[in-house]
Specification:
This protein is mainly alpha-helical and 459 residues long. It has 18 helices and 2 strands. The protein has a two-stranded antiparallel sheet. Strand 1 and strand 2 form a beta hairpin. It is globular.
């Protein structure tokens, strides 16, 4: 497939690392908040939905799972739409779809209808906002990219802190139908964020020659071994990553905790996450740390998996609060690093296609994760087993990424010496440039200003 990229921006334009980029960062912050917080905030309504429709945990978990699956699984579709129409138009349509889905859900008469409205329509709308906003953010930031990604990722916990208690409040006063209707109205703010996504333009440059056409979906990233290792590890990770936040509120209610205090657990998790994401982004952006971001990402997954395993021993509300604190730290680290590492692996020009393909692979795992946890809970009625399974899956992902990276980076000594001679000099005054990070991670010489992608490419 081929086609012109409408919203790509002029070739060779340096990312401003500021200016209008801060407005783009604000929009990405809001979009990220809605995209990641909504599937968790909707879980506040699960008990009420179970009573009204007479369904079990696994049936209600499908709502969040389908929503997340649409957010992830439509990645290639989003890549094609962005490369064909541009980020801003795609996001405007996505905001309207996300709002329409929640408004329609408030009139549903069965859980199947909820799957289609809240899951499919709202999930697709959020997907059409989330991926383009990340693409625009990474066009506007280069040297400050880790910090920008960390600040944008902080939108998830900030909105979780707000949406979880807001959802409980709306349910208490207006029921789940009224709550869904009001949340649908809030999602119209995605259209406002879309208006902020102004394409980059070269200052003082006329129309000039037409940009070369590019593929709407670049599948050549699968020839990059580093990308393949990352995609597989990320897919295994999301099998268990989203399970604890979906079930922790129901776990507390099952222990006899009042609804308001149970919903407060997500607020605790989100509050800690607020500080963890920018902090992780700041640390990753340090010149001495940035080249090793993949190892920091692997550690963050390991930390998250261990937290799930130890959290399975929580038998009271205090124990769940402690679990949410440590889960918030590790979850925030994962959220801040995942797309920064992907960008470092594939480079700027292939990021729009790479993120779409990664999200598609992760969608299968997302679709399986929460429902499998719900089915395990229905069969055993023991929440500890759900947390143990989630922890084991995230731990396996961290080891896969670490070992895969170590194996790929084993290069012959002569080749390593030859490549070392091609490394560009580092300008300490400006910090670490993203291309230097890609150069280090891949251990490959640059060709015509772009990192070469070969079967020997490493994470």
């Amino acid at each position: 497939m081929g086609g012109a990229v409408v919203d790509e921006g002029p070739t060779g334009v340096t990312a401003p690392d500021g200016g209008w980029g801060w407005a783009v960062l604000t929009g990405c912050f809001v979009i990220t908040g809605f995209s990641y917080a909504f599937p968790k905030a909707v879980s506040v309504f699960f008990k009420e939905l179970m009573r009204e429709f007479g369904i079990g945990y696994s049936d209600t978990a499908w709502i969040s799972s389908i929503l997340l699956a649409m957010l992830y699984g439509t990645g290639p579709l989003c890549s094609v739409c962005v490369n064909r129409f541009g980020c801003r138009p795609v996001m405007l349509v996505g905001g309207l779809l996300a709002s329409l889905g929640m408004v329609a859900a408030s009139f549903c008469k069965s859980v199947i209808q909820l799957y289609f409205t809240t899951g499919v329509l709202t999930g697709l709308g959020l997907a059409l906002n989330f991926q383009p906003s990340l693409i625009m953010l990474n066009r506007y930031f280069n040297k400050r990219r880790p910090m920008a990604n960390g600040l944008a990722a902080a939108g998830s916990p900030v909105f979780l802190c707000a949406l979880s208690p807001l959802g409980q409040l709306l349910q208490d006063h207006y029921g789940w139908r009224g709550g869904f209707l009001i949340l649908g109205g809030l999602l119209l703010n995605c259209c406002v964020c879309a208006a902020l996504m102004r394409p980059l333009e070269a200052a003082g440059v006329g129309p000039g020659p037409q940009r070369p056409s590019r593929r709407l979906l670049d599948l050549s990233v699968f020839r990059d071994r580093g990308f393949v290792v990352y995609a597989v590890a990320a897919s295994v990770m999301v099998l268990g990553l989203f399970v604890p936040p979906v079930f922790v509120v129901s776990y507390a209610k099952d222990l006899g905790v009042p609804d308001a205090r149970a919903a407060f657990l997500l607020t605790v998790l989100g509050f800690v996450d607020i500080f963890a994401r920018p902090a992780a982004g700041f640390i990753t952006g340090l010149p001495r740390v940035r080249p090793y971001s993949v190892y920091l990402f692997s550690f963050s997954m390991f930390f998250n998996g261990v937290t799930d395993l130890t959290g399975s021993t929580a038998g009271n509300y205090s124990g769940l609060v402690v679990f949410c604190i440590f889960f918030g730290i590790s979850y925030g680290m994962v959220g801040a690093l995942q797309f920064e590492v992907l960008m470092a692996i594939v480079g700027t020009h292939k990021f729009s296609s790479a993120i779409g393909l990664v999200l598609l692979l992760e969608a299968i795992a997302v679709l399986i994760g929460p429902p499998s946890g719900g089915r395990l809970l229905d069969a055993t009625h023991v929440y500890q087993f759900v947390f143990l399974l989630a922890g084991a899956e995230v731990l396996a992902a961290s080891l896969l990424l670490l070992l895969g990276n170590i194996c790929i980076r084993k290069r012959p000594g002569a080749a390593a010496k030859e490549e070392k001679g091609h490394e560009p000099p580092v300008d300490d005054r400006d910090g670490v440039d993203s291309r230097e990070v890609e150069q280090f991670l891949k251990a490959e010489p640059e060709k015509a200003g772009e990192v070469a992608h070969t079967p020997e490419t490493s994470v």
